[in-house]
Amino acid sequence: MDDRELLSVICPVLGEEVCNDDCAILPQLKGIMVVSTDMLHETTDFPVGMTDWQIGWMAMAVTISDLSSMGADPRYLTLAIGLDREDRLGDIVQGAQACCQKYNVRYVGGDLDAHTELTLVSTGIGEVDDGKPVRRSGANPGDLIGVTGIHGRAIAGLQGDRKYWKDLCEPEPRVREGIAIRLAGATSMMDISDGLAISIHDLMKSSGTGCEITGSAIPSLADYPPEEALKMALFGGGDFELLFTIPSGKEGNLPTSSAIIGGVTEKQEILIDGSLLQAEGYQHHW
Amino acid sequence: MDDRELLSVICPVLGEEVCNDDCAILPQLKGIMVVSTDMLHETTDFPVGMTDWQIGWMAMAVTISDLSSMGADPRYLTLAIGLDREDRLGDIVQGAQACCQKYNVRYVGGDLDAHTELTLVSTGIGEVDDGKPVRRSGANPGDLIGVTGIHGRAIAGLQGDRKYWKDLCEPEPRVREGIAIRLAGATSMMDISDGLAISIHDLMKSSGTGCEITGSAIPSLADYPPEEALKMALFGGGDFELLFTIPSGKEGNLPTSSAIIGGVTEKQEILIDGSLLQAEGYQHHW
């Protein structure tokens, strides 16, 4: 097959309209646009055993999560696929489309290439209708620090706990929660796909602040010993949850799936239960 | 180095503002948005001898060309970089930024990953302020067919003709021309980076029409024998020029760098000088 024949696999999924031009044509958005792009590779990003459908899902979920981390409403996504075997294309595109449909995002196009290693790059456009995306740099001393969801699920799945395999392979970005947290008055936000501990460091560094975290306040896996569950929550990575700060007194407006785990301090030190928190998590190394 | 250290190579080029959030924050556009994404790989897309600076330039130029092919004004670009050697990053980002600056496009962010083969994916957002992007499907029988520029330069460079090496490695997308052709009243348009012959086939197929081309009307290399120059122009690929159709009578408004090379017919046959034109050009094969 060549490029043009492979398009016949994609076009019925996306709609013929999408396949017929050099660009996707999109109506303008309200307020402010936010744009993010994410590159994933087979060897570093997709655990062995993950299906192609899940790979397609994941490729879109990572970017939807980035858009959500600013409190945006994800609207449009493209997906560039560096394909190692043509028979994988159908499932990848179906999984990508399923993820977009779940979050009401339009999968508007992409690119297709032959590649020795499966490589996926999604790019997303989100809309912040009131024009005020939540940035990383807005945390103030005295703010509360919160997170969405239960932490450590992805690493549990990666370590072979079948109960959490789907959490690892089909992450569910926090779209509604991100918007609700923005509207509740969050001062800073990011997603924690690299891991909670390193993300806390990143957020505080961007804001020029420090913080004090209470380990027992972090929602973690109830079916693991508490100390192990906390380690998994802090350093595991792969949970597509949100980390944010919000002025004290506004936490009543937060979604019920979120929890307060600590407070922002002026001193630029990241403490958990009184000790320094290591900035460890998932990073590529050269 | 890890991801965070490599950012210190990118941030001074793009501006610290760009590096500090999960997404780029962009003001809304007028009219209609068009979006396109392009994936390039070292082994298939970058000729041996091309510099890293030129690779960065090329990665942005391909997407700027896609946006131009709908008559859009390119506004924002992201670049995801799958990097094989960290020392290449600086030149790639500098070349990408130089291309953006030449065309007045903002390079607003991207992603960075380790990869065995250098892989670049740019995604661009363009603006069509009157809300009427030029599509592939609008050609009508009786329209004239036109092209911008001189064809065959990239293949000449690839074949070792040093005079055309820069044309191959630093393509100049036709931004002003694309907008001018749209405003002149073009009925269909696309870029011809896969090659002129195959692009003529694609454009006519999208419009459900055929055409008759005059070989001698195609601007080709004057320093090659005419028959060879025509073959290079038709089948070489890599020239980032535009192919378009426009109603007869409106050609007076076209940019001076464009030429009329034939006319659109009702019969779905692609003829050049009375013979069938082969649909050959650059395609990936699996």
Helical element count of chain A? 10
Report the strand count of chain A.
12
Q: What is the 3D shape of chain A?
A: globular
Which pair of chains forms the biggest interface, and how many residues does each contribute?
Answer: A-B, 68 and 68 residues
CATH architecture of the largest domain in chain A: Alpha-Beta Complex
What CATH calls the topology of the largest domain in chain A is Phosphoribosyl-aminoimidazole Synthetase, Chain A, domain 2
Proportion of residues in helical segments of chain A: 25-40%
Mean pLDDT of chain A: 93
Radius of gyration of chain A: 19 Å
Describe the fold and architecture.
2 copies of one chain form a homodimer. Chain A is an alpha+beta fold and about 290 residues long. Chain A has 2 domains: about 5-130, 60s Ribosomal Protein L30, Chain: A; about 145-275, PurM-like C-terminal domain (Phosphoribosyl-aminoimidazole Synthetase, Chain A, domain 2). In chain A, about 35% of the residues lie in helices and about 25% in strands. The first copy, chain A, contains 10 helices and 12 strands. In chain A, strand 3 (about 75-85), helix 5 (about 90-100) and strand 4 (about 105-115) form a beta-alpha-beta unit. Chain A is globular. At the A-B interface, helix 1, strand 1, strand 2, strand 3 and strand 4 of A face helix 1, strand 1, strand 2, strand 3 and strand 4 of B. Strand 1 (about 25) of chain A pairs antiparallel with strand 2 (about 30-40) of chain B.
